[in-house]
Design goal:
CATH class of the largest domain: Alpha Beta
Helix content: 25-40%
Shape: globular
Largest sheet: 13 strands, mixed
CATH topology of the largest domain: Rossmann fold
Distance between the termini: 57 Å
Low-confidence stretches: none
Radius of gyration: 22 Å
Strand content: 25-35%
Number of helices: 11
Strand order of the largest sheet: 2-1-10-9-11-12-13-14-15-19-18-17-16
CATH superfamily of the largest domain: ANL, N-terminal domain
CATH architecture of the largest domain: 3-Layer(aba) Sandwich
Number of domains: 3
Length: 424
Amino acid sequence: MIKIGDQFYDKAHFDRRSTEVAALTGVLKSVRYAVCFNDVAEWLALFFAIRNTGASILPIHPSTPHAAAKKLAMQAGCERLFYNSFAGEVLTDSASNSGEGELLQMSSGTTGAPKLIARTWQNIEIEIASYVQTFTAPAEMTPIVACPTTHSYGLICGILVALHRGVTPVVVDTTNPKHLLKVLRETERPMLYSSPAILHMLAQLLPAGERIHAAMTSGTLLPEPWFVRIREKCDNLFQQYGCSEAGCIAINPDLTAANDMGYLLPHISAQTGTALEAAADIVIRKADGQPIHTRDLGYRRADGMLVFVSRMDDMINVAGLNVYPKDVEDAATAMPGISDAVAFRKNDRFAGERVALLFSAERPVSSGGLREWLSRHLASHQLPSEIIQITEIPRQANGKISRRDVAERHAAGAFLPVQTGVVS
């Protein structure tokens, strides 16, 4: 059973509809399909039809324009594209004939060109079983999936895990926070799967004394002020950590520090540092696969907790000294009135690299005032050489920040400072 909006769809519906869709579309096991549908129920019917056939599927976010969806489909080697229609668009006459059906994703993380990630249905079933076996806290909760069901976070962890548990997931096909609060209030023991940005917005909107029963955060590390605000509004706050190549890697069943990613799922092993001063690349290994280098710096504590330090690609080297952007961002957002911030790398003729900072605030803030605040919380090599107040920090749909993209846009002069009317 899946609830989408106000409508319930039972297993019989999806079994019947998937059979109809399979016959209508002529789904073949040897073919890679790309799917971009606005209608969530029909998208899921086509997903189940393709998966049950043993074919491969590339889910594409429903807001993607046709030209961009077609480009993604062709990059992934898909033979057909279903774009809000079961007629399908033929992209190539040759079938991939990979032998085993796969869930396909185009992923670039925070850097680099898009790359194809292909995971077999068997691999995903192993992940789901491991997830359910380890993460038992929400067994009696109702998952509220307020994130794209075309992303593995919403599709696998939100919907497929719920169906494996035998509970009914509720898909909320809107990012309207007031509607989401209404759904949470109407649901007994809700567990919210959403982005950090949505969780932060809900925490700000909740009246005094009202709390969220449970929430999961994933995709990007919570800025410290966001974490504090969200934590105090949730009875249960969970965090999961993963990557496109491996799926979910670790889950924290009781989040008390933003960078505590969680404990490894039993089908995963990891190699990394053993302490903050010895932080190293988190290298993941599954029983049936090659090592996966996440390019995340981290370490495991003696109790097994996997702790995130920084993206290796985001680290800034200032005259031989490492600066982790999150340290700068946390210091900035700790200043009263600062709502969001992103620190990134900027070339410097003397130090090689320096820190630059974009921030948004509830009111005009002088760069001099923020710089003075930061000087009381950061070492000299961590201090930004340039500080700009902008209207809104550019975040991706999943709440992540691409610091590489921010740096490139900054170099191109894309960020115009807010007219603060105060002396810098």
